[in-house]
């Protein structure tokens, strides 16, 4: 989908919530008892969660996979800016979100043997990742703290009365 009107809901994430969710993901990954070769952070959204997870799992080797597919709320074709060439075995891929799964599929093709983990997953994207923390609706725009600032917002009841 590339229609920015597809989003009926907004789910704002604070820095504190993002940190808690990244730590929860780290606990889940730690329970797998796997010795990770390294983390591959999907830029840009995976950078902050990857930093938290790298700290919590004591992983010191962090790579990036640079892919661009979003312009504000519009998802387009995934463009690989910097690939990571490896079988993926022993790698932990970290991203903030799996939405439709288009970007995840590109990353999966790049590192087929890796374990893919995200903080948030939407129904269309869930089959493309191995582990996630929170599921949100496909019609929900997740507003990450690096894309927002604190300001007044109209109450939900006030917004729905205008329709």
UniProtKB/TrEMBL annotation:
Biological process (GO), any one: purine ribonucleoside salvage
Pfam families cross-referenced by the UniProt entry: Pribosyltran (PF00156)
Gene3D superfamilies per UniProt: 3.40.50.2020
GO terms assigned for molecular function: metal ion binding; xanthine phosphoribosyltransferase activity
Phosphoribosyltransferase domain: residues covered: 14-148
Record flagged with keyword Magnesium: yes
Protein name stated in the entry: Phosphoribosyltransferase-like
Top-level taxon of origin: Bacteria
Alphabetic keyword roster: Cell membrane, Glycosyltransferase, Magnesium, Membrane, Metal-binding, Purine salvage, Transferase
Keyword Transport appears in the UniProt entry: no
Matching CDD domains: PRTases_typeI
């Amino acid at each position: 989908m590339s229609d920015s009107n597809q989003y009926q809901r907004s789910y704002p994430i604070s820095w504190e919530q993002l940190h808690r969710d990244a730590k929860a993901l780290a606990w889940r990954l730690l329970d797998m008892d796997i010795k990770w070769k390294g983390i591959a952070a999907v830029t840009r959204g995976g950078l902050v969660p990857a930093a938290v997870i790298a700290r919590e799992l004591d992983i010191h080797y962090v790579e990036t996979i640079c892919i661009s597919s979003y312009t504000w709320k519009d998802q387009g074709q995934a463009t690989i800016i910097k690939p990571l060439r490896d079988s993926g075995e022993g790698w932990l891929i970290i991203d903030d979100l799996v939405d439709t799964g288009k970007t995840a599929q590109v990353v999966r093709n790049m590192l087929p043997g890796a374990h893919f983990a995200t903080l948030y997953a939407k129904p269309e994207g869930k089959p493309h990742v191995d582990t996630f923390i929170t599921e949100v609706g496909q019609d929900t725009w997740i507003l990450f703290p690096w894309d927002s600032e604190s300001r007044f917002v109209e109450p939900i009841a006030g917004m729905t009365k205008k329709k």
